[in-house]
Amino acid sequence: MFNKLKDLLNNSKHTIALTGAGVSTLSGIRDFRGKNGLYKDFDADKIFDINYFFQEPTYYYTQTKEFIYSLDKYQPNIIHQTLAKLEQKNIIHAVLTQNIDMLHTKAGSRKVIELHGSPQYHYCTDCQKRYSFAEIVPLVQSAKVPYCDQCGGLIKPDIVFFGDFLNAKTLTSANIEVAKADLMLVLGSSLIVQPAGYFPQTVARKGGKVIIVNEMPTPADKLAEMCFSDLQEFCEKLNAVL
């Protein structure tokens, strides 16, 4: 089966990867909907609700102190490293990720399209002044809500909240990659959240191949050329044949 996958990768003209929260669980970052997902302990819909953020920003910064503003302590795992290596070999041309943990970039991937943004940058919701992740972390870790030192406005992470629109340039870049792709690897995504959930269908509809690796079934499994459930084993075997 992995020899077939090797052939698909070698014969593909434009392979892309779509990654979800399951990719980062091997790094110790909990996913949202898995067996030990954050939804079991937190009301993620409330934490990432844009209206509630403006109403009560303390709630967001308090609840995310440990799993967003401690991201520096996490390291890329075999999945991030494999994708970075495949990009270096010119086998994978882009990584589209639903994750906000910045681990693909940390692993060395160069073309990473962060569909839901990331906390790498924050900005003032009034004057738009930008702040780095490193500037905001000490404030959040000391239980302070960050406000702009220029105008006093509330500072928000450059993350897409529920009720936000995806960044138009980011979405355009993602759609361009999906349109060019003749092979898509879907890794660790439930494919429930849109628009990422539609990307495999778009690739398959135009004759491309889709490979899905996810612990739980996804709505796109029936479209896939191959399905696997163990991400670590998948990457270990993929590394062995490439």
From TrEMBL:
Enzyme Commission number(s) from the entry: 2.3.1.286
Keywords: Metal-binding, NAD, Transferase, Zinc
Keyword field contains Signal: no
Binding site for Zn(2+): C124, C127, C148, C151
Active-site feature positions: H116 (proton acceptor)
InterPro entries in the cross-refs: DHS-like_NAD/FAD-binding_dom, NAD-dep_sirtuin_deacylases, Sirtuin, Sirtuin_cat_small_dom_sf, Ssirtuin_cat_dom
Transmembrane segments: none
Pfam family, one: SIR2
Any one GO molecular function term: NAD+ binding
Enzyme class per UniProt: transferase
Deacetylase sirtuin-type domain sequence ranges: 1-242
UniProt superkingdom: Bacteria
Protein name stated in the entry: protein acetyllysine N-acetyltransferase
Species this chain originates from: Candidatus Termititenax persephonae
